[in-house]
Amino acid sequence: MRTLSVVSQKGGSGRTTLSVNLAVAAERAGLSCAIVDLDPQASGWKWSQRRKSEAPEVITAVAEQLESIQTKAAEGGLDLLIIDSAPHADRAALLACKVADLILIPTRASILDLDALKPVLELVEMARRPALGVLNGVSTQTSLDVEEARDAIKARGVELHAAYIHERVIYKRSLIDGRTVIEAGSDAKAIREIGGLFAAVVERMGLEIPAGEVAA
């Protein structure tokens, strides 16, 4: 089993949206996946309650339960555990980082979001785990701010996912009835974005896609 922790210290970075979309991509690729929602707002858990499918399972928890949850998940044969961390919670985020095989750091291209990267990177360094940054919520209109953000992130020593996750209506609309962009199926560009990010996660975590299955 592998564990992916999605960590950001700033609200609105898109942690939950990426967590649920990656979880469904994993299920579509033939991997069993579950999400641990550490956010007190429980957005991921609420999304799961609106779904017509039991998978992926989403549970709410506190960070101190993570090791126990991880052990039970591994014993149960789970392939991928995704931890949706909480903003503004250093201890919870640090514990999420420590149990991760890979830490995914979503950030928007604003200066406030980039400033919020510093405490996250300090947690990553303390946890001594590999990390991957991803620019999320990027405008579909070309902007110099995005290129400046890429340079700023790389200057902080973070490996950055090559593609952007753009600001698209389908990301929010699909969540309303407990779906993801893959399940909605109406925006090919969004599907490719999630597929590309999932492929990057699979590669870096050493996940094995079951024979005959294709990653989203």
Give a quick rundown of the structure.
With 216 residues, the chain is of the alpha/beta class.
Number of helices: 10
Distance between the termini: 19 Å
How many β-strands, per DSSP?
7
Mean pLDDT: 92
- Specify the CATH class: Alpha Beta
What strand order characterises the main sheet?
A: 3-2-4-1-5-6-7
| CATH topology heading | Rossmann fold
Major beta sheet, specifics? 7 strands, parallel
Number of domains: 1
- In percent, how helical is the residue content? 40-55%
Structural class by secondary-structure content: alpha/beta
Order of helices and strands: EHEHEHEHEHHEHEHHH
Question: Could you characterize the architecture of this molecule?
Answer:
With 216 residues, the chain is α/β, with parallel strands linked by helices. It contains ten helices and seven strands. It has helices at 15-28, 43-49, 66-75, 90-98, 111-115, 117-127, 144-155, 169-176, 181-184, 188-205, and strands at residues 2-6, 33-37, 57-60, 80-84, 102-107, 131-138, 165-166. Helix 1 packs across helix 10 and helix 4 packs across helix 6 (117-127). The longest helix has 18 residues, at 188-205. It is globular and about 45 Å long. The mean pLDDT is 92.
